[in-house]
Design a protein that fits this description.
alpha/beta, five-stranded mixed sheet, three-stranded mixed sheet, 6 helices, rod-shaped
Length: 248
Amino acid sequence: MNTRTVPQGNPPVAPPRFDRKFIEDHQLIERYLEDKLPFKGARDLENWCRAHPEYLNELNLSERAHTSLKLLEASGQPQDLREPQPPWWKTIYLPIGLGVVTFLSLVAFWALFGKYELLRGELDDSRTLMARGSLVQPATKRSVYLTPDRAQGIDKARIIVNRNAPQLMDVHVDLNYTNKLAQFRLIVDKQDQGRALILENLLKDSNGELRMTLNSTGLSMGVYTVRIEALPNRGSPIAMGWLILDVR
């Protein structure tokens, strides 16, 4: 029994998925234009049309699109084919606006800072004026004679100063008991506040007195303790007397 031998050749090749017949049978172009194709199917169709541009030319898509636009325009539904406008927060005007706002904020900040510094300077001047007192031209003059206390805390040697009555006071402090010591300094402390004044290198006159001229408006109200120290040629200063300035 004879058997026929079937010649063997290459196995049949499966047709590619996309070809004209497949596209037309499945109406892929119409479904693409209607946005009904899935994402992968739409990408595959685009790739195929990119490789076969003559197929789109045969379909006359450009003429059909132009005619469709004319028809839409005639029906009162013109289509805007311009690029869609980006939202306002993605435009260049946003950084420009932010830059302008930042600049104006900096200008306002420096203006307020300058005003703050000016007011602070005025406040410091007012505080200094309150601490030192405001000098007023004295209307009268009087002389004050006193001997300082020999020890601290006695508080008998006292000068009462009235700021409400501007007066030039010629103060005579008797230092005859200091013998040959001739050079002194005065240290003035305001109670509960601290150091107010230091007068250096004061000399006794021929009467053994330390003389000072005081404007009654030159100090702010309060109680001041005055310490008198002798300055010998050698050695440390020596405390020689104390007195009180009571400014009212």
